[in-house]
Amino acid sequence: LYTHNTDEAQIVYIKFCKKLAKHGIVRAAHEGPHDFSLRAAQLKPQWADAINDITTRYLALRYQSQPNAENLKSLRLAVAGFKP
């Protein structure tokens, strides 16, 4: 069951993926967020902490039982602050 917050989380996460794609790190269609973050962090170790943080926040919003607006705001700020 998806809520408005999980849909918003996906939109924010896609923005994050687009930022990485501009640097040649493109998420494959079959690649889940966790596997993608591992690969991206391996390719750009200097960004590993931010990549892991954003992915952890996203996965929590998408899959926790009750996502909340504060967590969504946190994800938005983390993605906005990610400047590769």
Describe the secondary structure blueprint for this structure.
Blueprint lengths: L3 H18 L11 H11 L4 H16 L5 H13 L3
Helix pairs in contact: 1-3, 1-4, 2-3, 3-4
Overall pLDDT score = 90
Strand content: under 5%
Q: Helices and strands, in N-to-C order?
A: HHHH
Q: What is the structural class?
A: mainly alpha
Measured as a percent range, the helix fraction is 55-70%
Low-confidence stretches: none
Instruction: State the shape.
Output: globular
User: What is the count of DSSP helices, taking H or I runs of 4+ residues?
Assistant: 4
The major pleated sheet works out as: none
Radius of gyration, CA atoms, in whole angstroms: 12 Å
Give a description of the structure:
With 84 residues, this protein is mostly helical. Helix content is 69%, strand content 0%. It has 4 helices and no strands. It has helices at residues 4-21, 33-43, 48-63, 69-81. Helix 1 packs antiparallel against helix 3 (48-63), helix 1 runs parallel beside helix 4 (69-81) and helix 3 (48-63) packs antiparallel against helix 4 (69-81). The chain is globular. The termini are far apart. The model has no long low-confidence stretch (mean pLDDT 90).
